[in-house]
Predict the 3D structure of the following.
Amino acid sequence: MNMKELEMLQEMSNLYGGNPEYVLAGGGNTSYKTGDTLYVKGSGTSLATIKAGDFVRLYRSKLDAMWQKKYSDDEKTRESEVLADMMAARLEGETRRPSVETLLHNLFPQKFVLHVHPAAVNGMTCGKNGKEIAAKIFPDSVWVDACKPGYILADICRRMLSEYKAKTGSDADLLFLQNHGVFFAADSTEDIDALVTDVMGKLNSVIYGWKEYLGGQLSALLGTGHREYVSSPEIAAFDPSFRSPTPDHIVYCKAKYLVIDMNITAEALKSAVENFASDNGYNPRVVIVRGRGAFVFGTDAKQLDTVKNVFLDHVKVYSNSEFFGGYSGMSEELVDFIVNWEVESYRAKVSGN
């Protein structure tokens, strides 16, 4: 019995299984292997609560032998035959049903395997350009196109992993499954953690890196480093084409917001900011990223906080108005009056806005 390693497997399983960033609704599976035995999460078992003694034990030699068999061409019959052989591969006295992905776990020579479905990963595996991007940022990974789960998936992965080793001379430790998830493999749980951290870091850089880039570009164009990005489903659904709801929103956030797309080029962004300032006589304090969120700006920390809070209030007003027949902002005539009203100009000046 390899209790130390199984306790490490339990710790790794509980760590990722208890984190909704990696596992939802009891999905995912893990395993540990020796030369002879595979310990894999059982079907229907929760990674978040699994104990060291709960993993299903199987003879690796019997699992390997399954690749020499010819299974039925009928899908239901084939999967039934495969399941029967996996159940027969269990150690004597074992009663639990192994994970449907047991064969896939056994393909990896590494001792520890983690299979999860993080949203960051599946953003890529479900993306139209995911395969090309994976090849670029994870050149040492294996990508498997979408296919039916179970035996067919394991067989395709067996071929792909074998081709990778023949090409590189090394065993793959990272396997992406289109429209499915990811497999991490290593000889220690510490190395699994390091691999996960590296993958998630690179993916989050792709997913969230645009904010830093775009925010930095806007700060340079507006001449202020005091900015914050805010987002919510309400902001994503917010329609900035409607006029301000109250005078306060004009005083502190200005009457109009700049609206841009997430993938705007640097040249187009520069033109958008310059045109906005030329048309309105002021720089934008709120820049809406269409369908995403918004950047808010201030000349100092105090003004930034005020602009943010007043803008978020505008979004709340817009959202809440749906319960009262829909949004109705101030008239254009009233907006123009507030913009040019000396009283409000004085109030904005006194408040530092």
